[in-house]
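User: Round two. Same drill as before: sequence, then structure, for each protein.

Assistant: Same drill it is. First protein:
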Amino acid sequence: MDYLAELQLKFDRNTSNEISPPKYDHPPRIARFLIYFHHIMSTSKRQHLVEWARDLKLGGYSKPGYPGIVIVEGRQDCVLEYVRRVQRLRWKQMVVRGEDIEEIESSSCPCVDLNRKFPVEFRECDGGMSEIAGLCKNAGLHELFMMSMKKYNGH
C-alpha cells in the first residue's frame, strides 16, 4: 500500500466515528443500492466495505474479485453516507448501477428494519456471482441484480 493510501486509511479510522449521517425531515426511506466495481481485491478496502456497512447499520453483501459487487440496504441517509465513504477510496471503476428507494408508509411502523429484504447484517460472499444472484432472487431483488449486469427485462 502506498504512503498516501495509508494516510487516508488512518484519517478515515480517526474520523469515521465522528461522521454522522445527515438528518432529514421527510418520512424515513429504505434504500437499496447495487454498486459495481471493476474489481475488489485489496484486503483493507474489503475490510472497510464491511466495517462501514456495520457502523451505519446496513445490511447486504459484497462479492470480492473480478468484477466486484456490493449490494447494500438500510436507511437512505445511511446508504448515501456509505456510498460517499466508499467513493473516497481509490477504485479503477465504481458505478452505482441499481437503486431501489421506497418511502415507508406513515401509517405503518416507521422502523426501517421491518421493511428490509436482507438481514440486518453485512457480509462478504465467497460463492461468486451466482451466490449474490441467489440472495437477491430470494429477497425479491432479482431485477436490481440484473441491472448491475446491464440486463433489463430479460434482454
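Second protein:
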Amino acid sequence: KDRTSKSSWVRGDDEEWLQQRSERCKSFDTHGYLHIRSFASSDEVKNMIEQMQQLVEKKWKVLSDKTDDFEEGNKSTPLSVFRTDEGQVKAQGSNDYFLESAGRVHFFAEPKAINQSGHLTETYSAKENKMGALNKAGHGLHLIPGPFRDYTLSSKVEQLVKELGWFDPVVPQSMYICKNPHVGGEVTSHQDSTFLHTTPKQTCLGLWLALHDATLENGCLWIRPRSHHEPLRRRFIRNPQHFGQTAIETCSNIATGDLSQPQMIFIHETNSQTDNTDDIVLWNKQMSSVPWEGSLPTSLSCTQTDALTNAGFVPVECKSGDLLLFAGTLDHLSLPNMSNRPRHTFQLHLVEGNNANRQWSKSNW
C-alpha cells in the first residue's frame, strides 16, 4: 500500500511537514530512493576524477613484488583491502588503517588485485596502473580542499537534502568507489544505517553520484523499492570487548580492553524498543524474509540477475552526473564489473545532527 500520505521517512508523522512536501519528497518517502538525472555538471565530474587520480598518484604508497618500495624514499602504506562479504570483519574490523580513515583519505585495494604476498599483482604493479587496483578511498574526502568539498558544501546539495526533510544535515563520511573493469567486486546486500546509526531514529541518507555511466554490464546499483520501511537488521559497531565500555561511552578510540578481540563487529538488531508481542512477531517475520543480508539472493534454478529480480530488486542504470539518493534502511547491492569500462562514483553519507534531536550512536566507528 502507498504510505506517502501517512509518514515521512526522516520526519515521521510531522503533519506540518507532510502537508508541504514536494512531489520528489513524496516519491522518496514512498520508494526509499530518488533518481535525479544530470545533477552534477560534466566539469564537476571531470574535476572529481582528476583529483582522485592525483591523490592516488601522490598519497597511495604501495609495495610491489618487484621493488621494496613503490615510491623510492617514501614509506609505503600497508595494503588494506575492502570487502563486504564474510571476510568483512577481518578486513575492516581488525585494522587501524580503516578505523583511522574517518577524518582522512585512506586507500583500500580490491582483494583480486592483491597476491598471496600481500602486494599488488603483476597487472597493477606498475605505478601508472595502481589506480586500477583501487576499490575505494575514504572517508574524509569532503574535508580536503577541492571538488569533493565544493560539491559537498554546494547549495544544490543542501537544498535537495532539505527538500527531502532533513533539518540539520551533517556529513560524517564520504568515499570514492572505483568498481574498476574486471577486478571491481560485488557489494553485498546491506542497509547504510548499519554503519551510520542514529538514535532515537535512523536518519542516514546516501547520495550516490555516478562519475561514469553505470549499467548492468559494469555494476550499476540494484535497490529493493520500499524496503526502507523494514527494520534495521544489524549494526557494525566498535567492539566493547576490544575498546572497553568507557572508550565506547566517551567515543574514544584508545582501547583499554582485550586487544586480541576485533576492533569492529556486527551485531544483530533486536526489537528492544517494544514489549508488544504482536510487534515482536512482525519484526521477526520481517527479519527472516531477508536471508541474504550480507550476501546476495541466489537460486540454483536461475541466473544471478533473475534471482535478484525474484527477490524484489531492480537495477538503476545511471548516466555520468546522475545522482541516486536512498534512505539508510533501503536494501541495496551491486554486482561485479565484468566489463571493460570503469564505474566510478562519489558517495556522501549524511545524518541528522543534534539540532534535530538526533544523536550519532556512540558505538559507531
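Residues 67-76 have pLDDT under 50 and may be disordered.

User: Perfect.
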